[in-house]
Every structure is written in structure tokens, then in C-alpha cells.
């Protein structure tokens, strides 16, 4: 018997670990674009899942944004059926008419389709193919825009969207290994032209910045960036827990927040409380910025009678005596 190529074993081990932590007995669905990362993930899942007593299927989304996208989706779905993956779905989505740029609109449509499909099949989880290299890129992009620990924590290994667990089993696996695993299995990945398009910041980081970092600082730099994300994810989760408790403790009966309770908190917890409260009031997370939270915090720590703080969504928050409270829009 031919020896198993090490990258194939690496990807299978990562998938085995992810499946071991799952509850519920529905199938897992691999979200597969046909690119090297999610193709290697799908091949590994087709091998590992049945041996772990779990059904595995695949979903591929056709965004309809590039010529030939329907054929690509059909090829991926056909391959998946040959691998014994079941169920297999190819979902066409409409990206036009959604808010945000084309990339954000495509992502939103894709996640919606993935979650809808998972719910339809009662899936235990959706598996995404993000790798360690994707995580390193995410951390660098977050650093470049001055993100806080939440941004630097990168993409989580697990999160829930509309009640569906989304897992990223390959966050510790390099892109080089997913490519090598595909080659060892005789699979030809689809090359997404967007990945090489210098119009996108992520593509420029991938093509220019990461290779320069590796050349200057050595090959360990990608693993180190991903580790930074992991460490910050743990710290962020702990601070979020503290903030949730503090938010409950500082609420006043009218739904506002007590200034004395806020003043007693460390800044890292207080700003999280203010951020969480603003979201709860209806400020959209995408529009709520560091500047808004700093202005809310100043109502607590640098009070000199200043006027209300304007938050996204037309909300206004003012200090009234010893409370922060929502005031009527102008
Ligand atoms: N069209 C799609 N259909 C289904 N899943 C997708 C699609 N596009 C992306 N995904 C999922 O999202 C993950 C991240 O995709 P993205 O395009 O951001 O990264 P990538 O590194 O190019 O991944 P890949 O090599 O798998 O295409 C993919 O690995 C896959 O799990």
C-alpha cells in the first residue's frame, strides 16, 4: 500500500479533531468553492466522517459574478457525489441589490445560503476551509486598520450563525499543505481570480506582504501571527464575559446605565460594556466605531456637561445626573 502523503494526513487529522467535538447527529456540510483549501477539506471530510460515524455532505454556492461560475459549481457538486458525499447542494444566489460592496454582498449571500442549507438538512455544522495563512492575513489587515483585540483575534475556530455552528477545522493547517494534499490526491483546484486581483487588499497581502515577512523574519512568522490571534481570542472571550456581567450590574431600572457602576470598571471592561449596550440599543455593529465608544466613555470619565453622543441609527445617548440614557432624536 502506498504511504499516505503527510499533507493528506495533516488535513485529515484536523478534520477528525473538529468532528470529535461535535454534538447532534445531523450531517456535517463542507462549504466548498472548489479552491484548494475547501477542496482538500472536502476530500478529508469524505474520508474521515464515515469512519467517525457521521454523514458528510457538501454545499457550493454560485454567486453568478464570473463567467463560468455555474459550470464551476456543477463540477464541484459532481465531484462531491463521486466522493460519496451526501447531501450535495449547488445553490445559486443573487448578489445584486444587497447593501455594501460586491465582496461584502457576496459574503452575506453565501453565508445566508450556507445557513439555510444547513437548517434544511438538520446539519450538525458547516465546515469552512480557512487556513492558517488566511488567519495570518486577517491579523495583518486588522493591525493595519488599527483594530483592537477583537479584530486581532482573527477568525474564530467556531461560531454560531442563526443557530448553525460554523467550524474552521484548518486554522492550524498551512495553505501549502492544502495545495499539496490536493496534488497528492490528484485533485485540480479551481483558482479564484479574485485571490490574485491586486484591487483587493487581502490579495495584495497574500501576494506581497506575507512573502516579504517570511523572507525577512523566517517561515515561522505565519504560525506566530495565527498564535497571536488564538491568544487574543481567549483574552477577548474572557473580557466579553466580564463585560456581560458588568452590563447587567450597571443597568438602572429605566434601561439606562449607572455612572458610578461604570466608573468603577477597568477601561477595557467599561468600553466593552458601552459597546454592547450601544448594540443592544440598535446601533448596527458595522457602523459602530471606536470613535463612538470613546465619546460614550467620555460621558463617564471626562464629564464637563457635554451634549449627547450621536450613535448610528439616529440614536442619541446623554448623561442625565448619574445615569447614561437614551434621549429622543432631534
Ligand atoms: N462559492 C463558495 N461556495 C461554498 N463555500 C465557499 C464559497 N466560497 C468560499 N467558501 C467557503 O469559505 C471559505 C473561505 O473562502 P475564501 O474565498 O475567503 O478563501 P480561500 O482561501 O480562497 O478558500 P478556497 O481555497 O477554499 O476557495 C472557503 O474555504 C469555503 O469553505
TrEMBL record:
Q: What is its EC number?
A: 6.3.4.19
- A GO cellular component entry from the record: cytoplasm
Task: Give all residue intervals belonging to the tRNA(Ile)-lysidine synthase substrate-binding domain.
Answer: 257-324
- State where ATP binds: 33-38
Keywords noted in UniProt:
ATP-binding, Cytoplasm, Ligase, Nucleotide-binding, tRNA processing
Q: Which Gene3D superfamilies match?
A: 1.20.59.20, HUPs
Gene Ontology MF terms in the entry: ATP binding; tRNA(Ile)-lysidine synthase activity
- Which Pfam families does the UniProt entry name for this protein? ATP_bind_3, TilS
State the Gene Ontology BP annotations: tRNA modification
Does the entry feature the keyword GTP-binding, yes or no? Answer: no
Q: Where in the cell is it found?
A: Cytoplasm
* Limits of the tRNA(Ile)-lysidine/2-thiocytidine synthase N-terminal domain: 28-207
Task: Give the reactions, separated by semicolons, that this protein catalyses.
Answer: cytidine(34) in tRNA(Ile2) + L-lysine + ATP = lysidine(34) in tRNA(Ile2) + AMP + diphosphate + H(+)
Q: What is known of its domains?
A: The N-terminal region contains the highly conserved SGGXDS motif, predicted to be a P-loop motif involved in ATP binding.
Function (record text): Ligates lysine onto the cytidine present at position 34 of the AUA codon-specific tRNA(Ile) that contains the anticodon CAU, in an ATP-dependent manner. Cytidine is converted to lysidine, thus changing the amino acid specificity of the tRNA from methionine to isoleucine.
Recorded hits in HAMAP family, A to Z, give: tRNA_Ile_lys_synt (MF_01161)
Per the record, the similarity remark reads: Belongs to the tRNA(Ile)-lysidine synthase family.
| Database matches in PANTHER family | TRNA(ILE)-LYSIDINE SYNTHASE-RELATED
User: Any idea what this protein is called?
Assistant: tRNA(Ile)-lysidine synthase
Query: Lineage in the entry?
Result: Bacteria, Bacillati, Actinomycetota, Actinomycetes, Micromonosporales
